[in-house]
Design a protein that fits this description.
Number of strands of chain B: 3
Mean pLDDT of chain B: 67
Number of strands of chain A: 3
Strand content of chain B: 5-15%
Largest sheet of chain B: 2 strands, antiparallel
Shape of chain A: globular
Shape of chain B: extended
Number of domains of chain B: 1
Helix content of chain A: 25-40%
Radius of gyration of chain A: 14 Å
Structural class of chain B: alpha+beta
Order of helices and strands of chain B: HHHEHEEH
Strand content of chain A: 15-25%
Number of helices of chain B: 5
Low-confidence stretches of chain B: 1-6, 37-70
Strand order of the largest sheet of chain B: 2-3
Mean pLDDT of chain A: 86
Largest sheet of chain A: 2 strands, parallel
Oligomer: heterodimer
Number of helices of chain A: 3
Distance between the termini of chain A: 15 Å
Helix content of chain B: 25-40%
Largest interface: A-B, 42 and 52 residues
Low-confidence stretches of chain A: none
Distance between the termini of chain B: 29 Å
Order of helices and strands of chain A: EHEHEH
């Protein structure tokens, strides 16, 4: 696995290639509360993320699972 | 390599290596500070301002004096944020299971052109169409303040090169 950290705040503009990758439904983005991130990206940089899956388990009556808990094998 | 592959100029590659080293260093620093004690809160106003205050501190009870010289930016992470923390995973039923430990490369990118080059590379060399996604932004604690823009986007992908690593690892195990 390779990890990429894009420090957008240090860049003069949002990288066009990254925008295209995030908007490409072929590449599925997995995240906790990813819908929140999607809304935020649209609001901040006009990036309309497509192709994503929610990692948070919608179990009612139970505490929401954190990313930390989910990364435990 | 195929024509789709965009190789980074040597200058940029060096830049990336330096950046990655910088990131590793700061992580190491963070981990070393993790176990350090928080300096006790000063009971004298202005005790943290500089050397003139430390003279006044020495007249006080012993114990408070050593802490004054400790760096102010020291940061103690909650126990659950550390892999060996006692409270790790106590809220879930998976506490007995080990954490995922990332052993692959971490690329810290601060330049638009470098970012675009890397995304082209990711597209050309991706081993699966799945990727982990997360992002960070600075939180503003002022009431009614406009939230800050997204500052950092994190992506975790399995590249073909990563799969080679796994295959080689498996081969070495079977020998």
């Amino acid at each position: 696995m390779s990890v990429f950290l894009f420090q957008i705040s240090a860049m003069v503009e949002f990288p066009e290639q990254l925008k295209q990758l995030l908007e490409d439904p072929v590449f599925v983005k997995l995240g906790v509360n990813i819908v929140g991130d999607m809304r935020r990206l649209e609001n901040d940089y006009n990036v309309e993320m497509r192709g994503f899956k929610e990692l948070q388990m919608p179990r009612t009556g139970e505490r929401k699972m954190s990313l930390q808990a989910l990364t435990q094998k | 390599m195929d024509g789709e592959c965009v190789s980074l100029p040597a200058r940029l590659q060096r830049h990336e290596t330096a950046r990655t080293a910088e990131l590793r260093e700061s992580i190491a620093l963070m981990l070393s500070l993790r176990d350090a004690e928080d300096p006790p809160a000063p009971d004298v106003p202005g005790a943290f301002r500089g050397t003139e205050a430390s003279g006044a501190q020495e007249d006080k009870e012993n114990g408070a004096t050593t802490a004054v010289s400790a760096p102010l930016h020291q940061r103690k992470l909650p126990r659950w944020m550390t892999a060996d923390g006692e409270g790790a995973g106590e809220e879930s039923n998976t506490s007995a299971l080990p954490y995922y430990v990332h052993a692959g490369p971490v690329h810290y990118i601060t330049d638009v052109d470098v970012a675009n080059d890397w995304v082209r590379r990711i597209r050309a060399h991706i081993g699966t169409t799945l990727m982990g996604f997360d992002m960070e932004w600075r939180v503003v604690f002022r009431k009614g303040a406009e939230p800050r823009k997204t500052a950092l986007i994190q992506i975790a992908v399995r590249l073909l090169a990563d799969e080679d690593l796994v295959i080689n690892h498996l081969k070495s195990l079977s020998n």
